[in-house]
Amino acid sequence: MLGLAKFNSEWLGTPGDDTVAQSGNQLIVYGRTETIRELETRRAGDDRAHANVVDGQRRIAEAERRKAERNGTGDKMRSL
C-alpha cells in the first residue's frame, strides 16, 4: 500500500502494519490487477493466501528475469 487518504482529508503515506482502514478511507495501492482483486475477498489474517500470492509473485519475477536475459536486457533489469 502506498498510502491511505482518510475521509477527513488526512494523508498517511506508507502506513504501518498497525494502520486500520475505516469506512470512507481510500487506499492507494499498486500491483497486478488480479492480485489487488484477490485482496478484496481475502479474509484478514489469511496467512496461507498471503503466502500463495508471495510465491506466485516470486515465480512471475523469475520468469520475467529469464525472459529479460533471453532478450539481452537482463543486466539492465538487475541494475534497477
Protein described:
The chain is elongated and about 50 Å long. The mean pLDDT is 87. Strands 2-1-3 form a three-stranded antiparallel β-sheet, with no helix packed on it. The chain has helices at residues 33-41, 47-70, 74-79, and strands at 3-5, 11-13, 26-28. The longest helix has 24 residues, at 47-70. With 80 residues, it is mainly α. It starts with a strand and ends with a helix.
Question: Can I get a quick summary?
Answer:
This protein is 49% helix and 11% strand. It has 80 residues and is mainly alpha-helical.
How are helices and strands ordered from N to C? EEEHHH
**CA-atom Rg in angstroms:** 17 Å
Please report the number of helical segments.
3
Shape: elongated
The total strand number stands at 3
Helix content: 40-55%
State which percent range the strand residues make up. 5-15%
For the biggest sheet, the summary is: 3 strands, antiparallel
- As laid out across the biggest beta sheet, the strand order is 2-1-3
Low-pLDDT windows of residues:
none
Q: Indicate the mean pLDDT.
A: 87
For the terminal residues, how far apart are their CA atoms? Answer: 21 Å
The assigned structural class equals mainly alpha
